[in-house]
Amino acid sequence: MPKYLSLEDSKRLLNVTADENDENKERDYAIITLFLNCGLRLSELVGINISNIDFSEYKLTVIGKGNKERTIYLNESCIRAIKDYISVRPTEGVKVDSKASNKALFLSKRKERISNRMVQYIVERELLKAGLDTSKYSTHKLRHTAATLMYQYGKVDIRALQELLGHESIATTEIYTHVSNEQVRNAVEDNPLNKV
Asked: Is 125 a catalytic site residue?
C-alpha cells in the first residue's frame, strides 16, 4: 500500500511551511499547497507556466505523462497561495532560456525555472521541519496524500479521482484509495436498506 500523510500531518506540513521566515516562504508554501490539494506529479508542478493558470475559472492546465494536457481545478487555498507567491515572484532579471524560465510560475534563486531536484529538496526540508519521516515521504507521496484525502474526506468518486490524477487505468487510481475499516462500516450503515 502506498504511504501517505494523515490529515493532521498534512495540516502540520502546511503550517510549518507557512510559518517559516525566509525569502522563499510564499513560493515554498504554494508548492506544498498545490501538491497536497491537486495531486500533481513533480514534473507537472515544475512545468507550470503562469499562462497555464486561469484565475477567473479557478483552473490550471498541466502537461502530464505521455505529453497529455489535463485540467486541474483549483480551490481557494491554491488560488490564494499562487497569488501570494506571484506578488513576490521576481520579474526583473528572469532568464529567457531553453526552459522558458521567463514563463515559469516557480523560479529558483537564480531566476530560472525551478528544477525537479530543487522541489524535492524543498519538500524534504519542509517534511523535516514538520517532524515527518523523509525516508517514508516525498513529492510523490504528497500526490498519494492528496488523492487519499480527497477520496476519504471529500467522498470523491473514483472515476473523478482517475480524471484528476490523469490515470489511463482505473486500476492505477485504486492504489491511492486507502479504505479504512471505519469507511467500510459506514458504507454498510449508510445502505438505504439498513432500517427497512
From this structure: no
